[in-house]
Amino acid sequence: MPVKTSKSGKASKRRSDPHAFRRQRLARLRAALRGLGCDAALITNPRDIRYLTGFCGDDSYAVVSSRSVVVISDFRFEEDLRVVDGIARVHLRTGDIVEALRTVVGDLKPEALAFQSEHVSVHLRGRLAKAVGARRLKPTVGLLSTLRLIKDESEIRTIRRAVKIQERALLATLETVRPGQSEAAIAATLEHHLKSLGAEGTSFSTIVAARANGSKPHAVPGKAKTAKNQPLLIDWGALVDGYCSDMTRTVCLGRWPKPLEAVYEFVLEAQVEACKAVKPGITAGEVDTVAREIIAGAGFGDRFGHGLGHGIGLDIHEGPRLAKGIDTVLRPGMIVTIEPGVYLPGIGGVRIEDDVLVTAVGAKNLCSLPKSLDWATR
Predict the structure, then answer these.
(1) pLDDT (tens digit, 9 = 90+) per residue, 94-118?
(2) 17 and 104: one domain?
């Protein structure tokens, strides 16, 4: 089948080049390096290496210079490293990784080598200094995390897939939930469905909190069992091609306990209004305030003790952080969670969470799973 061409007769570069998005990412990184006065960067965070090259093996480094990318790895990943063909060359080490880095840097001869200080221990920094020269090393913070704030089309498509998988997995799980089941059993069923539907796994440790355990924002699934006319909070996510999704739903197996029925209504209002508030130019703190004022107005401000949300991507918690006083300005391409919650010790909790994409004109909720009180009453 012939390759489709544009009106100018040139083949679509994005379709023919599997690394098109990665080349754009590398160009942005190189521009950032020039601004820092560096001509190369040592990348030690595995997720950042995946972001730039597609390779996701551990115990590996990448060195990005103005003209090349070198991935330093070992024999275990010889076949996996084929993914970098066309974007990077491979240096297969047979010994210590820092010694291999010495060789690569010796070949490239950068004058100033940026490194990710937040991902390097004091011990490793000392070894790097001996290997490549202390004067050459330039510490940076947020070198890649800043670039990863804005998701490109490839990343958005992948996160959309993760969201669809996680929604289908929850619906399949809820069909089997009955009073008397343990939190751990429900979590196992949910994770089984996630993998059966195509996820690599979970994007974080699944939270299933039955009855009063819902008052613990990060409850660990255990032996506690569901009960009739009692709430069940589920916070779960799918990992797809390295990218995370993150949602929360709170349901009740029968009639809602009176305090929580009212709580559900105003937490839902806070969540919906905060989703509507997301748009380019607004600050993360301003979005948080929208939800926080609704919950505080209902008299439960002291029971909403965490931030409204966070960015998602290759990490489950990325920038921007949505919380009181955060002045980060939202920009198109950011994907954030909106997850207000109220937690009542001894009674339970309600949290509702969706993943929202900032667009050029506003926002798009990537989640379609219902969240009305009627739907949450099962």
Answers:
(1) 999 999 999 999 999 999 999 999 9
(2) yes
Q: Which of 89, 117, 148 is the last residue of a domain?
A: 148
CATH no. for residue 93?
3.40.350.10
Residue 43 backbone dihedrals phi, psi, to 5 degrees: -105, 115
**How many independent structural domains does the chain possess?**
2
DSSP3 helix / strand / coil % (the chain, rounded to 5)? 40, 25, 40
Q: How many whole angstroms separate alpha carbon 264 and alpha carbon 242? A: 33
Q: How far apart (Å, rounded) are the C-alpha atoms in residues 234 and 67?
A: 47
201 and 111 both lie in a single domain: no
Is 156 contained in some domain? yes
The verdict on 370 and 247 lying in the same domain is: yes
Residue numbers of the domain that contains 320: 150-376
pTM above 0.85, yes or no: yes
> For tokens 């995370």, what's the residue?
244
When pLDDT is cut at 50, 70 and 90, the band that residue 241 belongs to is very high
Strands 69-74 and 89-93: parallel
Instruction: Provide the total of helices (H) and of strands (E) in the chain, helices listed first.
Output: 10, 19
**For 180-213, how does the pLDDT look when each residue is reduced to its tens digit (9 = 90+)?**
999 999 999 999 999 999 999 999 999 999 999 9
For residues 179 and 93, membership in a common domain is answered with no
Looking at residue 54, its amino acid is: G
The H or E element containing residue 209 is: strand 207-210
Rounded distance between C-alpha atoms, residue 287 and residue 330, angstroms: 10
User: One-letter amino acid identity for 103?
Assistant: T
Strands across the sheet containing 89-93: 89-93, 69-74, 61-65, 40-43, 113-116, 137-140
Amino acid at 336: V
Q: Please enumerate in sequence order all residues whose Cβ is within 8 A of that of 67, keeping only pairs 6 or more positions apart, or say none.
A: none
